[in-house]
Amino acid sequence: ENIMVQMENGKRAVDAAIEAAAELRTPLLTASLTTAAAFLPIFLAESDVGEFTASLFKVVTITLLSSWIISLTVIPLLCVAFLKVTQQSESFDGPLFNGYRRVLSAMLRHRSISVLVTAAIFIVSLAGFGLLPNIFFPPSDRTYFKVELELPTSTSIETTADVVTDIEQFLRRVASAGDGETADVTSWISYIGYAGPRFVLSHNPVASRSSYALLIVNVPTAEVIDGLMNDLRAYAADRHPDLDMKLRKIETGPSIENPVEVRLSGSNSAHLFSAVDELKREMDRVGGLRNITDDWGQRIKQLNIRIDQARALRADISSQDIAASLQAGLSGLQLTEYREGEDVIPVLLRSSTSKQEDIGKLESLSVFAQATGKSIPLRQVADVEVAWDAARIYRRDGVRTVAVGAQIDSGVTASEKFDALAPWLTERQQAWGDDIRIELGGEFETSAESSDSISEKLPIAGFLILILLVAQFNSLRKSFIVLMTIPLGLIGVVIGLLVANSFFGFMTLLGVISLAGIVINNAIVLLERIQTEIDNGLEHGQAIVSAALQRARPILLTTATTVLGLIPLYLGGGEMWEPMAVAIMGGLLFSTLLTLGVVPVLYSLLFRVRT
Description:
Elements: H1 2-8, H2 13-38, H3 40-44, H4 49-82, H5 95-109, H6 111-128, E1 144-150, H7 157-176, E2 187-192, E3 212-218, H8 225-239, E4 244-249, E5 260-265, H9 269-286, E6 289-294, E7 300-307, H10 309-314, H11 319-329, E8 333-340, E9 343-349, H12 359-363, E10 366-368, E11 375-377, E12 382-389, E13 395-396, E14 399-408, H13 414-432, E15 437-440, H14 442-455, H15 458-473, H16 476-483, H17 486-499, H18 506-535, H19 540-572, H20 574-606
Helix pairs in contact: 1-2, 2-4, 2-15, 2-18, 5-20, 6-17, 6-20, 9-13, 15-16, 16-18, 16-20, 17-18, 17-20, 18-19, 18-20, 19-20
């Protein structure tokens, strides 16, 4: 655009290309580096989201620097070769320029009012953030979902396999209901006893255990997933009442087992589980939550073997003898390993009747004495007691902690449910006192940690941007003017998200951060042009208006091309990328319009220009 303007003023194409490139090379480099610096906190973030977004900084930096090099080499070459411009005097008499000149003149005459009105619009836009739904990472639109099955702890692998077989029968009936193209299920894979490989970055496999199974179910379209999950949930609840089933769409961000989770900590187990029961009832009353469970699992029956050391000593039986005999009689004692190619198969010694063991048979289990080679019944050296206890015990900071979590229904956000639970938790905290400590987990905690990890690095980016601006302008006042354009982008972000009926999430936050680096580019080239006009002999007031008119077209063209380039991301990026595209497009549109008026006004105020 600058080359074209200089050619219209009568310069040869080669001279116009050289002068335009020389005039803009430093401002364009500064603009590119400030944009890249805005992405730096994303790269430096020390949280799980760094895995997902760290590459943005690298890609943006390389792309911008490559674009800067091309703009100073290839673009001038192409302009000299192909750009044909008719010589004409510089004119800004069109309807657009005349309207802009009148608006700008009015703002310069009423500078204080212009600044106050802009500040008021910004404050109102901040209040608009409260109207936006908050979703950390939306579910993906992938055409498959996870089915996690958790049976009571110590359930045998055979029993778990039987449950998986029954679930597969349901899936098989659904798959056979269509003709292959219309069926709601196309295929599935089952992992019994472990959580399979990490097939996507957001899948964190749990530790292997016999009571766990995972199914990955493929469907023709993502639209059928919600209905299929509801049918599968109802089927499992009817057939397997002791089964804890979690059906989850594949996350687009870090894996969060339960979007809504509240942790209760306390040293008194009775008080702790009383509070846990109260919390579960309240979560059920709130509605919109399902699979309300705690991480300690269902209470299980335990057989405690109380060894009478005096009797065991008289029979020459050691505790190791008893442990080995129990293992052989119940789960199996590994004797050796059998190798078949690359596979290593353990060989176990186990009682043939171990599946049918009851307490009576357990008490009559033969204990083999290594010292004497004799066997005696277990009841002669130990007593067997039955007790019910927690399947697992978790501690945080050395204190027993129970995490009560739940999945959310479609159309419900975790932030809404946290807001619904907050008053009740505040009230119960006063009733429970210091015996119980409450902490919020799930999506609330992960979102806060991710946002904090980026916020901690924002001062680094801000300092780098300030250094670049001071180096460019050699003026703190001009640098301040440029930085003041950043809040203008937030006005458009809120309006854009509200108009698009979108939400505020982590990717939206990335869009806001990246927008900060983009919107200052317009201010940089505008201030640079004002200085050029002053150096050419114009009075400050005339230089402001002249520079604004000259830079209006390239600024608007740059904004328009950026917005148009983001439309495919808005239309085809899905729920994950759509808010980010909306935030950048809306913020850039409004900040551009405001920058063309606010930057000249701030310049005239800070440099005391008479208007």
